[in-house]
Amino acid sequence: MSDEPDSRFRIYQHDSRELKSRLEAEFEDVDGLVDTIITSPPYADLIDYGDHDEQVGQQNYESFLDDIRSIYKQCYEIAADDCTLWIITDTYKTNGRVVRLPFDIADELENLQNHKTCLEPDCSGHLQRNRGNGTLVCQTCGEVHDPLPESWRMEDNIIWDKLRTRPWHQKGRLRNVYEHITMYSKTDEFTYNKDAIRITDPDEFKKWWVNYPERYSPKGIVPSNVWEFPIPKQGQWGPKVSYHPSPFPEGLVRRIVHLASDPGDVVFDPFAGIGTTLAIAEALGRKPLGFELNSEYIDYYEDHVRPTALREVGSVQSTLQDEQALLQDRIYTLRIHKYAYELYKELITTDRNSLRDGQIEFIQATSDPTQFDQDADPAASLVFVCESAEDFNDVSMDAAMEGMLSEDKGSGDYYGVDFDPMFSTVNEYLDTLRTDPPTLLDEEVYLYQGKHNWAESNMEIGDWIECVASNDWLQYWSKTRPPLVSNLNIQVENPMEDRGQKQAGHQAGLNSFD
Ligand SMILES: C[S@@+](CC[C@H](N)C(=O)[O-])C[C@H]1O[C@@H](n2cnc3c(N)ncnc32)[C@H](O)[C@@H]1O
């Protein structure tokens, strides 16, 4: 097989009203040819994209909707069963009336065959849509028709916050900063890779994410249905000459491509403009296919948008993958350290046979971080070290773990970590470290002074053994919590805390990170 890209996957300078026949001239079989469609048609006659009689929207609004239905019907016919259609449009006000373009298009697409009269033999009654369930009801014989099995089905209507916009506002119409991204499916089998679009930048999390890492997926958060992407600045892709008036932002297309397609899939745009959809899709390993009337936009795509995307989108992608791996490490490390301290609190509660505050001298946590990207829950060992066995002989670790459950503080299951907690005396602990140290503790250890998110210092394992043997660990007690020693290293600011106060409460570490 040749590695050469298939040159049929490109922008065609044709009228998209003829898209099916044009594609049939290129491809032997167009059934199921496209896997994802990301597109924005002209908003009726709001913008003139060049002197082309075939430009949709230049006729009256009803003819425009007929064209739109015809184009998306042809899209439906060439779409694979798992295909989704993403249409970016907006409402606008003309002659004092708000035109509901996103929803007028939805009405057309959900009756793609344009049934207007009753389908029963001998009845030609007028069909009226039941707006509650989308069926078409004959006003003469009462027969109910469901157009959805042979139509695009609206799945979602996402708000695209453009962040920047023109400063216009008028009485009854505020400054317009958003547009609609309306998503449609062909069948229930549509591709929907939620994990591929998770947000991994903690700056976009709630302020309490460090305190509640168990509530955040290690893979990041699935975006809501309000998407913030600034409209592209002039010159983002190349010189401003011949620039298109309404190109897509790169991040918006990237998100849809990841969510709705897999590598190798065909991504199609029947109103390609300067080809943002196609360029990003190709840079992400998909096959680009599109139609556009204006040759200047096509040239701009070939000369600037495509080469820039092929050069730059890959590096954005690897940064995102690095961010994802970093978040995974952080969330599991925070969960393990937090659980250690929560279980400590449970062990010293006074409402059952328990330890007294201070009897646990320090806690050790170990976990193999190479497990963090596996599907199974990672394992973590916790050792609660006391002076003598008498301190903990009558204390049930199981009851403490149960207490975490019953008081809704989160079990190991809830934390997504398979915890193995135990008690040890200082002497047993030292013996083990000297004779048979856990492999995870054979190099550096990190010391936490009551904060699960901030390693105050690090040291060689030999120094830690000395520290324990000489009772120097005592200096790492915070006001209320014993020191935690761990093979896992983390230093993330807690947005809920004033860092200045936090610093003031700390004692000097042996080998501070600061
Ligand atoms: C809203 S713009 C699309 C912008 C595009 N998403 C981008 O990122 O550049 C709509 C485009 O549809 C094109 N167009 C209008 N009527 C068309 C038709 N009948 N066939 C193909 N393209 C058409 C216009 O020239 C215009 O570039």
Instruction: Give the class from helix and strand content and strand pairing.
Output: alpha/beta
CATH topology assignment of the largest domain:
Rossmann fold
CATH level 1 name of the largest domain: Alpha Beta
CATH hierarchy: architecture of the largest domain? 3-Layer(aba) Sandwich
GO molecular function: DNA binding; N-methyltransferase activity; site-specific DNA-methyltransferase (cytosine-N4-specific) activity
Domain DNA methylase N-4/N-6: 34-301
Keywords: DNA-binding, Methyltransferase, Restriction system, S-adenosyl-L-methionine, Transferase
Catalytic activity: a 2'-deoxycytidine in DNA + S-adenosyl-L-methionine = an N(4)-methyl-2'-deoxycytidine in DNA + S-adenosyl-L-homocysteine + H(+)
Structural topology:
Blueprint: E1 11-12, H1 19-26, E2 34-39, H2 61-78, E3 79-89, E4 92-94, E5 97-99, H3 101-109, E6 127-129, E7 136-138, E8 144-145, E9 153-161, E10 178-185, E11 226-228, H4 250-260, E12 266-269, H5 276-283, E13 287-291, H6 295-347, E14 360-367, E15 379-386, H7 389-392, H8 397-406, H9 412-415, E16 418-425, H10 426-435, E17 444-448, E18 455-460, H11 461-469, E19 484-486, H12 499-504
Parallel strand pairs: 1-13, 2-3, 2-12, 9-11, 12-13, 14-19, 15-16
Antiparallel strand pairs: 3-10, 4-5, 6-7, 7-8, 9-10, 14-15, 17-18, 17-19
Helix pairs in contact: 2-3, 4-5, 5-6, 6-8
The chain binds S-adenosylmethionine.
Catalytic activity: a 2'-deoxycytidine in DNA + S-adenosyl-L-methionine = an N(4)-methyl-2'-deoxycytidine in DNA + S-adenosyl-L-homocysteine + H(+)
Protein name: site-specific DNA-methyltransferase (cytosine-N(4)-specific)
InterPro entries: DNA_methylase_N4/N6, MeTrfase_CN4_CS, RM_Methyltransferase, SAM-dependent_MTases_sf
